[in-house]
Amino acid sequence: MMKKNGFSRCAEMYIGRLRKEGRYSTAHVYENALLSFRGFCGTPTVSFGQVTREHLRCYGQYLYSSGLKPNTVSTYMRMLRSIYNRGVELGSAPYVHGLFRDVYTGVDIRQKRALPVSELRRLLYEDPKTDCLRRTQSIAALMFQFCGMSFADLAHLEKSALDCNVIRYNRIKTRTPMSVEVLDTAKEMMNQLRNSQSSRPGCPDYLFSILSGDKKRKDEGAYREYQSALRRFNNNLKDLARTLHLQSPVTSYTLRHSWATTAKYRGVSIEMISESLGHKSIKTTQIYLKGFELKERTEVNKGNLSYVRNCCVGRNKSVKF
Prior knowledge:
- There is one protein chain.
- The protein has a 3-stranded antiparallel β-sheet with strand order 1-2-3.
- The chain is 52% helix and 4% strand.
- A hairpin with a 6-residue loop joins strand 2 and strand 3.
- It starts with 5 loop residues before the first helix and ends in a 12-residue tail after the last helix.
- By secondary structure, it is mostly helical.
- The chain has 12 helices and 3 strands; from the N terminus they run αααααααβββααααα.
């Protein structure tokens, strides 16, 4: 007989394991999924018996009616599926063929939007008039000039990553080794954002003053500090977009997607774009990712920057980096 709190207990045990491993971001996603499903069920705990095909279908409709986007719905469903599968492996839940067949567990790539090049140019080059927004603009510009580097990777760069004008690091998300050459146009912004504090024993010595560096890498406090920095950056990006009268929504991901879209529009191969972004594979086409030299990637990066900088240059010839 299945326990009344079996599903909740299985989820909590796995969340606890993730936290012990320092995987706080993943644990947080599972916690949100469990909290959401528990709220839908209207019970303090959830049993495996409550996870039925019909109940899941109704839950999906509930999420959509609450205004959640397809990718968020998919994330919640995949978390629930993962927990259920763990229950099956432990012998706590019966195997049900096609249990999640009627709910969305894919990835809606249409939600990801790049900025039109004219708006991208304004975002990166037009003076927002305040120091706070100029700092936000500098961070955004570095993300773009570092081949669409993610905010997480930029924020966690350490001083040791910079070696003879080349930044070498492992991606936070995939641990993929990466290298990007620092363009001349990025050096002044790097100096403005550079962390001048001395490192603390056992703590990361960050290159930029985005994170404090006073917490050990695996501490939950370090994860919470990053989440606060990300929220602050996204809020400041919204203010920057509003100040510059942009019509398109802007988030930390927008810079990364805009870099990739700009490169694609210029005719750069998908293989090169994928490697420059640090993707492990191209799922939609299964294209083999062949290697490219740093010099080749640098030329692509320079071309992207030049393309955006010179877009509609006749409208405002005084704009410079």
